Amino acid sequence: MDKEVQELMEKKRYISEEEQKKCRRVADAFAELEEADIMVLDAGRYGFVKLQYYTPSIGFENDVTFVESREMFEDLWNEWMHFQLFMLAEENSIGDIDYDEVFWCLPIAKQKELMDKKKTFEEKVGIVL
Fold first, then answer.
1. Closest of 46, 40, 128 to residue 80, by C-alpha
2. Strand ranges in the chain using DSSP code E only, listed in sequence order
3. What's the CA gap between 90 and 25, in Å, rounded?
4. Percent of the chain scored above 90 by pLDDT?
5. Nearest to 15 by CA among 71, 58, 77
6. Cα–Cα distance between 57 and 87 in angstroms, integer?
7. If phi over 0 gives left and psi between -120 and 50 gives alpha, with beta otherwise, what is residue 38?
8. What is the pLDDT of residues 38-60, one digit of tens each?
9. Cα–Cα distance for residue pair 119/117, rounded to 1 Å
10. H-type helices in 64-107, by residue range?
């Protein structure tokens, strides 16, 4: 490979510095997802990477790269919500139904509490979504 082309490739950024700062705040806000075996790592100039479904023999089975904070926020919000619904289903011995169905089985007050959490995350991130 030509040395000039190689140097250019090494310097290319796939995420702007501003988006990298915003994505860092999003990752920090959703750090509790580590309980659900979801890791979000800063991959430098490549963006942020969400890793999930870890098994010792294989490693992480799924990875997604983000370069936009809005997209990352929505993805992590959905992961957070699904984890909450999974935990609630497990606590209440609700089996074999979809996460959305679990949500609609909850009391209205609990549904509101979960949905209000999105605003809390938005405020914690401090960016307009």
1. 40
2. 38-42, 48-55, 59-66
3. 30
4. 71
5. 71
6. 26
7. beta
8. 999 999 999 999 999 999 999 99
9. 5
10. 69-91, 99-105
Per-residue confidence (pLDDT) for residue 93, from 0 to 100: 76
**How far apart, in whole angstroms, are the C-alpha atoms of residue 119 and residue 125?**
10
Residue 9 has a pLDDT of 59
Question: Torsions phi, psi of 42, nearest 5?
Answer: -80, 115
With H, G, I as helix, E, B as strand and everything else as coil, classify residue 39: strand
φ, ψ of residue 41 to 5 degrees: the values are -120, 145
Residue 99 has pLDDT above 90, yes or no: no
Dihedral through CA 5, CA 24, CA 53, CA 14, nearest 10? -20
- Do residues 43 and 65 touch, judged by C-beta distance below 8 A? yes
Facing residues of 42 across strands?
48
